[in-house]
Amino acid sequence: MAVNTAETRLEARWREILSVHARTLCEIDRALHPHGLGASDFEVLDILAAEAPREGDQCRVQNLAGRIHLSQSALSRLIARLEKDGLVKRSACAEDRRGVWVALTGRGRELHSEVRPLQRAVLARMLEASAAPHPAESHPSPA
Fold it and tell me: What distance in Å separates the CA atoms of residue 56 and residue 27, rounded to the nearest whole number?
């Protein structure tokens, strides 16, 4: 039987966080799939909606890269796919030729508004469920 040391509790908690993350991403993917989006697609749209809230506002791809947990190349491919689907528009940065701006299109804003409640509902359900005490963590009340 394993000794319940601080280290084993820390390791168990870390594995639980990873498990909740993986299950939540799968649930978000399922909820958004009928709308042609995955969890990472939604994250880009959601961050753009927050960072560039008005029509015509833009965000540098570099700023997205710091908030999306994808490699730079994977993020570039995702943005290219979103652009092909008419959800975002890319443009070159005049101040820095290596920089790229990205903005939500009207269609991207509409789709984001439509699916945001679905994503938030999944988050609420999954994160509330993960916050519930686990049997191993519950302590019997004194008799």
Answer: 32
DSSP label of 34: G
With tokens 């508004």, the residue in question is 113
Specify the pTM.
0.82
State the helix-helix crossing angle for 39-51 and 106-131, rounded to 10 degrees: 110
Going edge to edge, which strands form the sheet with 100-104? 59-60, 100-104, 88-92
Reading the block at residue 81, the tokens are 């796919």
Cα separation, 99 vs 93, in Å, equals 5
Q: Where are the alpha helices (DSSP H) in the chain?
A: 6-32, 39-51, 61-65, 72-84, 106-131
Per this entry, what is the length of the chain? 143
Please give the Cα distance from 36 to 117 (Å, whole number).
Answer: 16
Half-sphere exposure of 121 (CA within 13 A, CB side): 9
Q: pLDDT by residue (tens digit) across 82-104?
A: 999 999 999 988 777 778 899 99
User: Tokens representing 43?
Assistant: 């994250």
